[in-house]
Design a protein that fits this description.
Strand order of the largest sheet: 1-2
Largest sheet: 2 strands, antiparallel
Structural class: mainly alpha
Radius of gyration: 24 Å
Shape: globular
């Protein structure tokens, strides 16, 4: 447990925690656009009730995402200054573009979206909601551009160990960028989709908020029927791109140590216990040639093996191997639930199917697990490189850093996160447990003396009655 390993654990802990909130708000912002659009088209109060309810969830999630993201930048100065020194000319502008074009856009329109429904015209409020949703997608664009360049670097000039921009177009649109961006946005949408569907199924099982719950669940089924199969296709294309540019990462994902002979193809390993020190798998369960079909679209296709590179150039195999199977397994379960739900809906038995409702409940948080598993595959699979093929992770860490200092800061982060974000998650749970209010004051229907509470923090987006009832419910 030296300073390098502890710094990697700390960065992994913080970014894994942080990514959950932006991913959720990416999908949630677009969901709010849809809800407000439906209200504007129909003027049906039920759509506005749903909008107000999920906007409160969005506000709290957005606030926690901002707070957890602030500390991410600290580490570049304390733990990874060599990376900042050598690659800052490329990564710095990309991250600053995200702040200028996306974060300012979100911050500028967020207040009107949350607190201005009764202060501006409905069309103006809808425009603000669209701008917030656009800001989340633009933010994703620049963050993924920076990550993709580190995974498949191009367009730079390397002189005296320092990376400088040579072709910004090539830097932003690196070879893995289109696949990675599409894969990430779909993952965020699917994660949000299953949260909304899971909450709707939960309400239906409890017999509360029936009409709103039914709309949440049905819309989730429709959206999931589109996005989950699309994610399977995009995931396949992303895998082919990774095989082209990072073949050893794919070998780690598949636990592929050695070739099985000319013409034998690559088996699809369903389960195994990778032994990195012995360069083999134990308890392996595999289907011959199926790996070749999946990875190369040919029954006798071959991929590079882990033993084709020196041990120091291989990633940690076990976490990549297991995380990939968790991600794929959850994706298949999601597809199964969506298809079964569509069938039950077509037969008119959606509400009566206890197994369908339970399936949505059980998978309501599974998108977050799949999201983390996918990120671990991407980032751990890149090791030992921080900039693939050009700069090793061990060369990016602060050489003067002491293990005790990193351990203490990691413990401090974990403690603070447990307290602050534990409280935030508790409040979110209470808000979801309470559910949406029927008969929310829609824009243009409030009396002239109606006062809307304003605030300077996302938590204030929840009404005082929401907070009071949540506290009383916890006491009870």
């Amino acid at each position: 447990m030296d300073a390098l390993l502890l710094s990697r654990i700390q960065f992994g802990f913080l970014i894994s925690f942080h990514i959950l909130f932006p991913a959720f708000t990416i999908g949630l912002a677009s969901w709010l656009v849809f809800l407000e659009w439906r209200w504007l088209r129909t003027r049906e109060g039920l759509w506005w009730d749903l909008y107000r309810f999920w906007s409160k969830v969005f506000a709290i999630s957005f606030g926690m995402g901002v707070v957890s993201g602030i500390v991410m930048s600290f580490q570049f100065g304390t733990n990874w200054p060599v990376l900042s020194e050598r690659a800052g000319n490329v990564l710095g502008p990309l991250l600053s573009y995200e702040v200028i074009t996306a974060f300012f856009l979100e911050a500028g329109f967020l207040g009107v979206m949350l607190f201005g429904a009764h202060k501006v015209r409905p069309a103006v409020h809808f425009f603000c909601t669209i701008m917030v949703a656009a800001g989340t997608l633009i933010s994703t664009f620049w963050i993924i551009a920076a990550i993709s360049w580190m995974q498949t670097p191009q367009g730079h000039v390397l002189q005296d160990g320092v990376f400088s921009p040579g072709d910004w177009w090539a830097i932003v649109f690196s070879p893995s960028f289109p696949y990675r961006l599409t894969h990430m946005v779909l993952a965020a949408f699917i994660t949000t989709c299953f949260v909304i569907g899971g909450v709707g199924a939960w309400y239906l099982r409890r017999g509360v908020h029936r009409e709103m719950a039914l709309r949440m669940l049905r819309l989730s089924i429709v959206f999931g029927a589109i996005t989950v199969p699309a994610q399977v296709l995009v995931g396949d294309l992303h895998g082919l791109n990774t095989l082209e540019h990072q073949p050893i990462k794919v070998a780690a994902m598949e636990g592929h140590w050695r070739s099985h002979g000319e013409g034998a193809g690559v088996p699809l390993v369903l389960f195994a216990v990778p032994r990195q020190s012995e360069e083999r798998n134990d308890l392996e369960v595999a289907i011959p040639r199926l790996g070749s079909l999946v990875l190369t679209h040919s029954l006798d296709g071959e991929i590079p093996t882990l033993t084709s590179v020196p041990p120091e150039d291989r990633p940690p195999v076990a976490p990549v191997f297991y995380a990939f199977r968790v991600m794929v397994g959850i994706g298949l379960l999601m597809l199964l639930v969506v298809l079964a739900s569509a069938w039950a809906w077509w037969r008119g038995r959606l509400e009566q199917s206890v197994w369908i409702l339970r399936g949505w409940q059980l998978l309501s948080g599974s998108g977050f697990v799949a999201l983390l598993a996918g990120w671990w595959v991407t980032e751990i699979g890149r090791q030992p490189w921080v900039i693939h093929g050009l700069m090793r992770t061990r060369d990016a860490v602060n050489p003067a850093l002491q293990a005790a200092a990193v351990a203490s800061s990691l413990a401090a982060y974990a403690t603070v996160y447990a307290i602050i974000f534990g409280a935030g998650m508790w409040y979110l749970r209470q808000l979801l447990k309470k559910g949406p209010k029927a008969g929310e004051k829609a824009p243009g229907t409030a009396p002239s003396d109606h006062r809307v509470k304003t605030g300077a923090r996302p938590m204030s987006a929840g009404d005082e009655s929401d907070i009071t009832e949540a506290v009383e419910g916890a006491r009870a």
